[in-house]
Design a protein that fits this description.
With 224 residues, this protein is an alpha+beta fold. Among the domains are: 41 residues, no CATH class; 47 residues; 64 residues, no CATH class. Helices cover 50% and strands 12% of the residues. The strands form 2 sheets. A 3-stranded antiparallel sheet has the order 1-2-3.
Length: 224
């Protein structure tokens, strides 16, 4: 087995994101050598090239993590440095650095996270909501009781729909929970609105569409 070309490794390490890619190129450039990927990685460690995070990245985390928290800093870290790391490994590295979120960020997380108990009743927070069509929208949620089930969409809390109804925002803005912008409709009306393309960001058009659907339902019932 031939020895490693240390200069080749050191010269190119900064250009590679993944060890496997570097190993493949190394073997292509050195066809007469025979090494396993594990042996290649061990060699790079001996050369001091096995650092998972650069000093610049660690400094960025120390500056930004406390105000961002794990999820947001993970996304911004990837955008800033153009790298993709596993989320669990990312959190482990945060722990290794001994970083903690700030009191302000913790309070914000408490407001947004329905699993937390240390926020008062009546607290309102914005949370992502996945619709049946797969689209994700933002909605206001309000804490009305204990536990996860104690958080409900603010629109439902205001409009108080009956069983089988859903609350819709007349202007299409899921964060506009003005009582005048909310109306509860049943599944039949929802389907008719969709089928006739009546949904609009103009509350007057949406309201008129709902009225038309309700009238059509009454006319159909009278004919039966």
């Amino acid at each position: 087995m031939c020895g490693y070309d240390n200069e080749w490794i050191i010269e190119r390490k900064a250009d590679y994101r993944y060890w496997s890619e570097m190993y493949i190129d190394y073997m292509n450039d050195h066809p007469n050598e025979s090494h396993t990927l594990n042996a290649f990685v061990q060699r790079t460690r001996k050369l001091g090239l096995n650092r998972r995070y650069t000093q610049e990245q660690d400094d960025w985390l120390r500056e930004n993590y406390p105000a961002l928290g794990a999820s947001e800093s993970y996304v911004r870290f990837g955008e800033t440095f153009g790298v993709k790391k596993g989320f669990e490994g990312f959190k482990s590295h945060i722990n290794e650095l001994g970083l903690k979120v700030s009191a302000k960020r913790q309070y914000e997380a408490d407001q947004d996270n329905g699993n937390r108990e240390n926020v008062p009743l009546g607290t309102i927070g914005i949370r992502n909501h996945k619709q049946r069509n797969g689209k994700v929208i933002q909605m206001n949620w309000i804490k009305v009781g204990k536990g996860t089930s104690g958080w409900v969409p603010l629109a439902q809390h205001i409009a108080k729909p009956e069983k089988g109804q859903r609350v819709i925002h007349l202007d299409g803005n899921s964060l506009n929970d003005d009582p005048k912008n909310l109306v509860a409709v049943d599944k039949v009306t929802t389907a008719m609105m969709t089928g006739n393309h009546f949904w609009s960001d103009d509350p007057n058009i949406t309201s008129a569409g709902i009225t038309w659907c309700e009238l059509q339902k009454l006319l159909k019932e009278s004919e039966e």
